[in-house]
């Protein structure tokens, strides 16, 4: 699975002549650019920024706090390098997914945009039978996965963190999450988009600044931490030592855990984020492709990097608990922040987990809803899904159902297979849209800016 995910990213990067990399600066500017009022042909439900925030809501989750720590224990600090590598190729995958989602989207009976890998398979494949079968499989896997990785595991992370830090019983936390989810989700994508447009930037900046503060205070440890990260990423066998223990890892384990945590953190190739991309108001598939592509950049190359550097510079990696087990997951990240900020560090991480996980619940509800909509066209089924999804958060917050989580993780992985097949089959369509946008939009814009600068210089 990981080879297929990475392989598709590498193939698309080369097929697109590295344009997703070369235009990353342009993509980042586009995220914060104000919509052009002269573009009357833009169709969609929410703004491009809200679409990205909805996608980021689902991807920036507990994986950025728990997943990074787990990868660095099981794969060593070098796993962080392989997270970066997977993210670089994931830019092209996320770009391609989003282009297809916008190009092949449809308008549903409610007048809302409906799109994603299932519609790309249905409308883009020449062999309609194969396309329809893959679309149904993807949608079914996505609906099941939404209840697990997008709901129960997130609710459980919130209730567990709140119980551990503040001592609040899980049933109280579960009830609060359920009510909040109901209020937001019953309003549909426009409500989700508005809430995510506020929560996601706030939570990301909040966590980022806290992490940067820890890194600055531990600045003297950063050179050694970075050296250890790169040494262990490419060393056959290497050892990282903390205060009370050691982490032994090989290059293969660093690669395995780094790529795995990276891919499942930014979701490039899983086919989930393009469902949000399809709802955006945009005049060209590539415009939204570039904007949604930055989700991988923000998720892995920014947020995960901060977590990784905090852990690497704290000296906590490799420490063992009283029971003799290596400190891992959320406990490792909390210990890393607390090593500098004291109890405040634990509160910061706990609040981060709460916001990250709740936004993931909102984002994944939309993915599951749109996937169900593809399978069942009745609007009443969608309203029932929103209600049931909200109630399930209470079960997730108060019950540890490991078998359900494992099953939903499997569904999450299975989503990627039809999606990656779709990306490879329709790679020529992606390339055509990419090169068309480059010639008609990006190059003229660059030439216009060059002439403006030239005119300013001549006037001076």
Automatic annotation (TrEMBL):
Membrane disposition: Multi-pass membrane protein
Residue ranges of the TM segments: 65-85, 130-149, 161-186, 198-219, 225-252, 297-320, 340-364, 384-405, 411-431
Subcellular location: Cell membrane
Cellular component GO terms held in the UniProt record: plasma membrane
Keyword terms, alphabetized: Cell membrane, Membrane, Symport, Transmembrane, Transmembrane helix, Transport
Alphabetized GO MF terms: amino acid:sodium symporter activity
Family under the similarity heading: Belongs to the alanine or glycine:cation symporter (AGCS) (TC 2.A.25) family.
NCBIfam families xrefs: agcS (TIGR00835)
Name of the featured protein: Cation:amino acid symporter AgcS
Organism: Acetobacterium woodii (strain ATCC 29683 / DSM 1030 / JCM 2381 / KCTC 1655 / WB1)
């Amino acid at each position: 699975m990981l080879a297929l995910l990475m392989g598709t990213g590498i193939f698309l990067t080369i097929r697109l002549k590295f344009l997703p990399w070369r235009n990353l600066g342009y993509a980042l500017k586009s995220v914060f650019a104000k919509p052009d009022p002269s573009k009357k042909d833009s169709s969609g439900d929410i703004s491009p920024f809200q679409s990205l925030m909805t996608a980021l809501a689902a991807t920036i989750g507990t994986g950025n706090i728990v997943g990074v720590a787990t990868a660095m224990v099981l794969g060593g600090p070098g796993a962080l390098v392989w997270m970066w590598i997977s993210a670089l190729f994931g830019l092209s995958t996320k770009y391609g997914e989003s282009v297809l989602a916008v190009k092949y989207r449809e308008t549903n009976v409610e007048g809302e945009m409906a799109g994603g890998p299932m519609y790309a398979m249905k409308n883009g494949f020449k062999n309609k039978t194969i396309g329809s079968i893959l679309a149904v499989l993807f949608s079914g896997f996505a609906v099941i996965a939404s209840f697990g990785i997008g709901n129960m595991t997130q609710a459980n992370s919130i209730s567990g963190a709140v119980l551990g830090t503040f001592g609040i019983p899980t049933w109280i936390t579960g009830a609060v999450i359920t009510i909040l989810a109901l209020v937001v989700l019953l309003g549909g994508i426009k409500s989700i988009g508005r809430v995510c447009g506020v929560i996601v930037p706030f939570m990301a900046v909040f966590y980022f600044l806290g992490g940067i503060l820890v890194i600055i205070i531990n600045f003297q440890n950063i050179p050694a931490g970075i050296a250890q990260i790169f040494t262990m990423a490419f060393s056959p066998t290497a050892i990282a030592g903390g205060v009370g223990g050691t982490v032994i890892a090989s290059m293969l384990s660093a690669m395995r855990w780094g790529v795995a945590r990276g891919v499942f953190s930014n979701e490039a190739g899983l086919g989930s984020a393009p469902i949000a991309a399809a709802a955006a108001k945009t005049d060209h598939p590539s415009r939204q492709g570039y904007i949604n592509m930055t989700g991988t950049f923000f998720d892995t190359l920014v947020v995960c990097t901060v977590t990784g550097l905090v852990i690497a510079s704290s000296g906590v990696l490799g420490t063992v608990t009283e029971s003799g087990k290596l400190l891992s997951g959320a406990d490792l990240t909390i210990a890393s922040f607390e090593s500098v900020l004291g109890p405040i560090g634990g509160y910061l991480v706990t609040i981060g987990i709460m916001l990250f996980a709740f936004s993931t619940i909102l984002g994944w509800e939309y993915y599951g809803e749109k996937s169900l909509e593809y399978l069942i066209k009745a609007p009443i089924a969608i309203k029932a899904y929103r209600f049931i999804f909200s109630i399930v958060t209470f079960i997730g917050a108060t019950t540890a159902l490991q078998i359900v989580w494992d099953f939903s993780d499997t569904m999450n992985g299975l989503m990627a297979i039809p999606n990656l097949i779709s990306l490879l089959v329709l790679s020529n369509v992606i390339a055509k849209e990419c090169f068309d946008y480059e010639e008609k939009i990006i190059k003229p814009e660059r030439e216009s800016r060059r002439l403006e600068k030239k005119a300013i210089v001549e006037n001076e």
